[in-house]
Amino acid sequence: MRVRGAVLREMGADAPYASSRPLEIADLELAPPGPGELLVRVGASGLCHSDLSVIDGSRPRVMPMVLGHEAAGEVLEAGPDAEDFEPGDHVVMAFVPACGHCEPCAAARPALCEPGAAANLAGTLLDGDRRWSDGEGDLNHHLGVSAFAEHIVVSSHSAVRIDESLPFEIAALFGCAVLTGVGAALNSARIAEGESVAVFGLGGVGLAALLGAAVAGAGSIVAVDVVPEKLELARELGATEALEAGPDTVERIRELTSGGVAKAIETVGNERVLADAYAATRRGGTTVTVGLPHPSRMLEIPAVSLVAEERTLRGSYLGSSVPRDDIPRYVDLYREGRLPVDRLLTHRIELDEVNEGFDRLARGEAVRQAIVF
After folding, report:
1. I need a surface site. Which of 59, 188, 205, 370 has the fewest CB within 10 A?
2. Span 2-175+340-372: which CATH code?
3. What is the pLDDT of residues 232-264, one digit of tens each?
4. Is the dihedral of CA 55, 60, 63, 69 positive or negative?
5. Does domain 181-317 have CATH number 3.40.50.720?
6. How far apart are CA 200 and CA 213, in angstroms?
7. Nearest to 302 by CA among 291, 311, 293
């Protein structure tokens, strides 16, 4: 079938993207779903810093690629062996297609699925095939989703069924921002009631982590960013303190929390910010990082502190989540009013506005934007 989608042919275009137009809106050919795959009509897809990192080249991927990974939509066709789904199902996409059989999947760690990671790196679906093409040849899939298109084909292992009453532009956020941020707070940091928490970076993932900390019952939440409007939103969403980032950030957090926080979550993808997050924790504290710096960047911390102060530094991919369990759980929290995910959605745009949307994201003028189809 013919589908309109946003194709990135080369990384590293100069901003502003409204002028350089790195994402080309093109008519593409989408092959039918194969065994274990789904044809999905996309209802909405979110613009994430992970997408921006591919555009600017700090997260290298194979080119050319149909971009986008945070989405929700309706199943139109289920291929052979996709027994868990049928036409009409509403689904959220998870950006790691977990095979369910490898060692990490067997250990309930689908974010580390080995075949899923290999497929994502190669730009294919889970079975190693590609369903996109144009007049010049095959196009690559982005994280098994390629959400910036009217219709997509995904592995059924990338999809999670959700309640049909949830608007697509809200549902899409559960596939990345909420899954990653809330998961970082609840699954990775394991914030306990009464603990002090600092969140560095208040984009969609960071504010979702803040919401997760509030759900966990954190005693105090310090929010850190460089954008005043995001700091104000953080206060509205439960931050007890909101600090504009600067050279004295660590010192100020230590003063506010009597020596440092118990848990810190870094979402910026910058090694210097991660070092600050680590330094802002107290003895015995835990720092969780979900940001994705350029692969060449290196982190420097006092090595002795890991032992002498029993500190923990851990990564969190996909929020250390099990999407088929956690997405419905987070949706329930949203419906109960405990996880106001809708507050993260600041802009609704059309597919033709995607380049302008990434300019807005790069300038820090948006939390989450959704392309609504």
Report:
1. 59
2. 3.90.180.10
3. 999 999 999 999 999 999 999 999 999 999 999
4. negative
5. yes
6. 13
7. 311
